[in-house]
Design brief:
Elements (H helix, E strand, L loop, with lengths): L1 H25 L14 H4 L9 E4 L5 E7 L5 E5 L19 E6 L18 H15 L5 E4 L4 H5 L9 E3 H7 L5 H6 L4 E6 L10 H5 L6 E6 L11 H13 L1
Parallel strand pairs: 3-4, 7-8
Antiparallel strand pairs: 1-2, 2-4, 5-6
Amino acid sequence: MIGSVLKVAALSGGAVIALALGLVLSDPPRPKVGARGMNFSHSMGRSPHTPQPVTVPMRDGHGLQVRDYPGTGPLVIKMDWAGWNGLKFHGPTPAPGAHVLVLDLRGHGAQPGRRGDVEYIGQFGDDLADLIALRIRDLNHLPVIGFEMPDVVFEGLLGDLAATRYSDRFYVSNALRSDHLRDVAAQAPFLLLTGAGDLAFVADGYAPLMSQATDNGQFIAAPTQSHLSFVDADATRAAITGFFDEL
């Protein structure tokens, strides 16, 4: 029985090898086609002002070669799949002002890794995902929120201490996480103080929201106090003293 199985396996393996050899022999490498092929003259005579590529690390450590044409408009990615490289696309983009990235795909250009090859099927897509994610993070310094403060703030001695806008990375760092009630549920006993007249936050919204996840919270809104004034209010001091006395 075992001998029969081995014989079938050997015959199957031989058939696969014969099929592969047949495909190779039936389609041998062809001679260069010279002038009858694609004309590369347009891509061979690039301007000396063409940006030098920068190396962008991919998830496996490969350095993807990317030429960066800065712009304030939408992100445009150009690539070539036909054996050449990103120099093919050095020229004006159909989207004026766009931020253009021209890349040498893995397996192409001056730093191909394995020329004409990838490590696994689907790696092109992973490279593009890595590139887009990296470049999106490059925009995190841009402002997304601005504060309109009264002139009296800037006219005073401490006017230069005001932060009038927040970047995206600051805002995201300061924001609640998506599963914020899980974070609330993990808190030790806490006191949350607000001003009842706070115009920046909904002072009476904390208790019904956070009490869904925990019984460890005390929620006090200092009467008649605003977003700034509640810090020094008598009711605030009394609440803090009482909280620590109970610990």
